[in-house]
């Protein structure tokens, strides 16, 4: 998994909790399928919660109505093709398969051996993979990385406006600062000034 995370330039409203998450762009069946995909791409394991808990799907949904709007039809077509492929190769739609079968199908998408995708399955896989990474590890302001799950997972201590010499020592880990960059007035002011 790459470490660079691209963040869309258009801000989104952050969901306060999974229970309050509403989806504006994706249809309910698309949400369920996408939830199943992100849960397999960055799964919950011994290291902590994964992309589903980080609300990567919510990030993608919000982005598809803004910065990633050009990808909306690719999602609709790709998710439908995924279910058709899962049904023809495994007998059930993707979200209803066991995790082992889901993993196998995602591997087939990645190596471009799954049929029925336009332009091809690996392009669809890479698009969702990239957006899942963004939704898991980007600033929570954009709708994902709920409760700073992604930052905690990779040990990112958060935005710092001041770092003391003691905090720079190699033998000590900085205490996480669970704040969005947009919580810092100076950052927001800089962004607004650039937009003029």
Global morphology: globular
End-to-end distance: 36 Å
Rg value: 18 Å
SSE sequence, one letter per element: HHHHHHH
Could you say how many structural domains there are in total?
2
Could you estimate the helical fraction of the residues in percent? Answer: 40-55%
Give the rounded overall mean pLDDT.
Answer: 87
Specify the structural class.
mainly alpha
**Residue windows where pLDDT falls under 50 for at least 5 positions:** 1-19
Strand content: under 5%
- State the total count of DSSP E strands: 0
Count up the helices.
Answer: 7
Q: Largest beta sheet, briefly?
A: none
Q: How would you summarize the topology of this molecule?
A:
Blueprint: H1 28-41, H2 56-64, H3 72-90, H4 99-110, H5 121-137, H6 149-154, H7 185-194
Helix pairs in contact: 1-4, 2-5, 4-5
Report on the architecture of this protein.
The two termini are 36 Å apart. The chain has helices at residues 28-41, 56-64, 72-90, 99-110, 121-137, 149-154, 185-194. The protein is globular and about 60 Å long. It has 196 residues and is mainly α. It has two domains: 26-156, no CATH class; 159-196, no CATH class. It is built from seven helices and no strands. Mean pLDDT is 87; it is low at 1-19.
